[in-house]
């Protein structure tokens, strides 16, 4: 729905996905729903469970564009059973945080050059969740054991979503309009709401699939889960609304400035997470 909202306003959009076949079908369907066969939606091969793919995707985008006005780190998984990616990290932590950090880092020069003539014309949105507060560790982020194999699926999810907000906080401190680098990039962390998407059906680390199939329709009928279309509202507000200028904000349903957890406002933890992440990628040769 975020892609559709931007495309309907004439934006050129690169849509990251692992499967070209599935992505092209989605793009075709979106163009039909929009009634515009010429909508500028482009498939970008991107596998967040593979750091090499993330770097290649960023390079591909940079080779095609001289400007980038918006980056929405939207992909995510929730409550899945423990597994490691080929890079050796817990799949939620890599998909929801690490790969988004890496993708963003490689696109920062393009975003900065876009914002240089007029600060605020380039924006970054990290999609997070109120799960960052509901399923949190006492220490926030366990940097000496980020995979959290001994913890529950939802605690691993909560850590990844907290990392999204801390990432946003540090991006703003360095690259925001008042940041150390004077980058002029507006950044935001967005909690889209409790939306009826495939994310809920995949959370088998939280409950068995059979239970999820029964519970999800009930939660939708009772208003606990909202319609999928609403899930894009806050991201669209943060990425495109000229009235949004509060860089570093935490946005809650729908298109409102909210307040994250105390842990998410911890400057020292945000710095430590950034430094840990930077060093890890540097040592692995991805920077």
UniProtKB/TrEMBL annotation:
InterPro entries referenced in this protein's UniProt entry, alphabetically: NAD(P)-bd_dom_sf, SDR_fam
UniProt name for this protein: Short-chain dehydrogenase
Keyword Oxidoreductase assigned: yes
Family recorded in the similarity comment: Belongs to the short-chain dehydrogenases/reductases (SDR) family.
SUPFAM superfamilies: NAD(P)-binding Rossmann-fold domains
Keywords, comma-separated and alphabetical: NADP, Oxidoreductase
Superkingdom of source: Eukaryota
Sample GO molecular function, one term: oxidoreductase activity
Record's keyword annotation contains Repeat: no
Pfam families: adh_short
């Amino acid at each position: 729905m975020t892609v559709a909202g931007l495309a309907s306003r004439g934006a050129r959009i690169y849509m990251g996905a692992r499967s070209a076949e599935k992505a092209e079908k989605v793009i075709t369907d979106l163009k039909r729903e929009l009634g515009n066969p010429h909508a500028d939606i482009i498939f970008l091969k991107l596998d967040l469970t593979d750091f090499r793919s993330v770097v290649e995707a960023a390079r591909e985008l940079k080779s095609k564009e001289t400007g980038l006005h918006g980056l929405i780190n939207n992909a995510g998984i929730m409550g899945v059973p423990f597994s490691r990616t080929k890079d050796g990290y817990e799949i939620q932590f890599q998909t929801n945080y690490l790969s988004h950090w890496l993708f963003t880092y490689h696109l920062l020069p393009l975003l900065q050059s876009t914002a240089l003539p007029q600060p605020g014309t380039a924006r970054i949105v990290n999609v997070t969740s109120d799960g960052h507060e509901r399923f949190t560790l006492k220490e926030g982020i366990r940097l000496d054991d980020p995979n959290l194999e001994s913890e529950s699926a939802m605690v691993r999810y909560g850590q990844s979503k907290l990392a999204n907000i801390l990432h946003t906080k540090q991006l703003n401190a360095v690259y925001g309009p008042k940041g150390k680098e004077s980058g002029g990039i507006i950044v935001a962390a967005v909690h889209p709401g409790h939306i009826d998407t495939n994310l809920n059906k995949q959370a088998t680390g939280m409950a068995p699939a059979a239970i999820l199939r029964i519970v999800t329709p009930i939660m939708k009928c009772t208003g606990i889960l909202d319609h999928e279309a609403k899930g894009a509202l806050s991201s669209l507000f943060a990425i495109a609304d000229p009235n949004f200028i509060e860089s570093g904000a935490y946005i809650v349903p729908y298109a409102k400035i909210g307040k994250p957890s105390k842990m998410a406002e911890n400057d020292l933890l945000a710095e430590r997470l950034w430094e840990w992440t930077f060093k890890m990628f540097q040592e692995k040769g991805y920077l």
